[in-house]
Amino acid sequence: xxxxxxxxxxxxxxxxxxxxxxxxxxxxxxxxxxxxxxxxxxxxxxxxxxxxxxxxxxxxxxxxxxxxxxxxxxxxxxxxxxxxxxxxxxxxxxxxxxxxxxxxxxxxxxxxxxxxxxxxxxxxxxxxxxxxxxxxxxxxxxxxxxxxxxxxxxxxxxxxxxxxxxxxxxxxxxxxxxxxxxxxxxxxxxxxxxxxxxxxxxxxxxxxxxxxxxxxxxxx
Length: 220
Fold this sequence. Notes:
CATH topology of the largest domain: Yope Regulator, Chain: A
Helix content: 40-55%
Radius of gyration: 26 Å
Number of helices: 9
Number of strands: 6
Strand content: 5-15%
Order of helices and strands: HHHEHEEEHHEHEHH
Largest sheet: 6 strands, antiparallel
Structural class: alpha+beta
Distance between the termini: 54 Å
Number of domains: 2
């Protein structure tokens, strides 16, 4: 860690001296620090480094694609992964077709119109994940408790074992309204870092792992 700090310090010092030679750094000779050249140099270096870091951070924020564009990129890559595994996936992007910003996108794997996957972000207000923001992948089975949801729950542990992550359900109060979902949730780091590859792989794994069980239950 110390070696890394020294390496970064040396690199920044080199850039600072180059900018100073070019006259790109303003030096206030009337400052009280002028009598102590070493202290003045350190103050100048600190000021320059803070400004440089702020500019780089702002540039990074500006380069971050909108969330719906990030979802489109995730879906395109997941579609490729699934095609390689012999699974056809389709989705509609309103942001591309009509310029409408979307925070959720639906994914079709079956001809069955009422059972589908979707991807978006959520900030649960209740339950074990309360308060955090997550990238969430839902398997939506609304209205199919007896035929699909309940039988699939019997396979939940096997599915989780294959995926290597736990799956969440809706709160009992929500399920009581007929909304039945299994959720794969990823931390907000995936969103902040725009980690397209990881999100796409998790989505493809989720679909590939659950699809055979759904097919056994007659979802085609």
